[in-house]
Amino acid sequence: MSFTMTMSMFPLTTLIFSLFQISSLASSPPDLINFRSPNLYPESLSWDPTAQHLIVGSLRHPTLLSVSDAGVINTLVTDDSIPANSSFLGITVDVVHNRILAAVHPRSQPSNCALAAYDLHSPHHRLFLTTLHDAASTNSASGANDVTVDFSGNAFVTNSASNFIWKVDLEGKASVLSKSKIFTKTPVPDSPYSSCGLNGIAYSSEGYLLVSQSSTGNLYKVDSKDGTARKIELNRELNAPDGIAIRSDGVLLVVSQYKLYFIKSSNSWSDGVVYDEIVLDTRRFPTSVTVGAEDRVYVLYGNVNEGIMGNSQRDEFSILKVRLEDESGDDAIWLYVLIGFGFAYFLVWRFQMHQLFTNMDKTKIV
């Protein structure tokens, strides 16, 4: 009898152990896409839905690479006409007009910042290279950083050095969209990010821009037509926000060196609520976030803190593929299903044990 009971309980014990394993898998860390490219130090990241791959832009030189989910890379752009020490600090894919837009920051000549546009299907073909400057003030420092685009092909580029936003139309003509005083109203604390103002930028289909400011931790809503801006009130402070992206459900993703924030708003961004966050690997220095197919979220680990030093050498970088909430929900559903099967199996086992003991009692009586 003892041996029979032990053997009968073994499958149940195995099942329970498996359930604990599945529960652990449901909370497993997100996936990493590792890829290699000598001294690339990617700072910018975007998703190309036409080719179903990611695009990264280099801090060290004017180069764009595609990266597959398997970590396979392909060089899309190496622009020899741009100074060799230039960075592609911000990139975005303009699907409507089949372009890749890249914010160009020549590190030795920051006053010659520019926006480059490349043919999405023939990236070696550059459509235009527009110098970005502030015609109203020759004293404004230039620091082209991130870029986004609307459905009409107008690109919007943040100036991190002087806290304003450029607009570049479909033909490549540049102007200043917004120099709102709200951008400089908040006192800037003394920190490693105090010199980096407006940074990440994303276009909403409702006709406005969402912009992050690294030096203050603020977010702003900016009208894409007239440049009027207002600060978005949040339920908590953000720590040095960098790149941003908008999911199809309207959730704003904000990446910093420390965390990925999930923010939502119920009133068109008069205010917002940070409702979730993911702790990131600060050693890999995350800088950019993008949204891919099926609202998958990707965070770039470009190790740009090493790249800024100039004398470092690295050839391996990573992109974090963040598990979505509904994917975690699917795991939970399967967990509950398996628990149900386990409970049913337990009831069957108890019934069998009851029958076994009943038969044994009958045998003793006989």
How would you characterize the overall build of this protein?
- Residues 1-26 form the signal peptide.
- Residues 42-296 form the SMP-30/Gluconolactonase/LRE-like region domain.
- This is SMP-30/Gluconolactonase/LRE-like region domain-containing protein.
- This protein has helices at 2-26, 304-309, 325-365, and strands at residues 31-36, 42-48, 53-58, 63-67, 73-78, 86-94, 99-106, 114-119, 126-131, 144-149, 155-159, 164-168, 174-178, 198-203, 208-213, 219-223, 229-231, 233-234, 244-246, 252-255, 259-264, 271-279, 286-291, 297-301, 316-322.
- It has 366 residues and is of the alpha+beta class.
- The strands form six sheets. Strands 18-22-21-20-19 form a five-stranded mixed beta sheet, with no helix packed on it.
- It starts with a helix and ends with a helix.
* Number of H- or I-type helical stretches: 3
Oligomer: single chain
The counted number of beta strands is 25
User: How widely separated are the two ends?
Assistant: 18 Å
Round the Cα radius of gyration to an integer and report it.
Answer: 27 Å
Poorly predicted segments: 1-28, 327-334
- Name the structural class: alpha+beta
Secondary-structure element series: HEEEEEEEEEEEEEEEEEEEEEEEEHEH
Tell me the strand order in the biggest sheet. Answer: 18-22-21-20-19
Q: Mean pLDDT, rounded to whole units?
A: 85
Proportion in β-strands: 35-45%
Helix content: 10-25%
The backbone outline, from C-alpha atoms, is globular
Question: What can be said about the biggest beta sheet?
Answer: 5 strands, mixed
Keywords: Membrane, Signal, Transmembrane, Transmembrane helix
Transmembrane segments: 333-351
Protein name: SMP-30/Gluconolactonase/LRE-like region domain-containing protein
Organism: Lactuca sativa
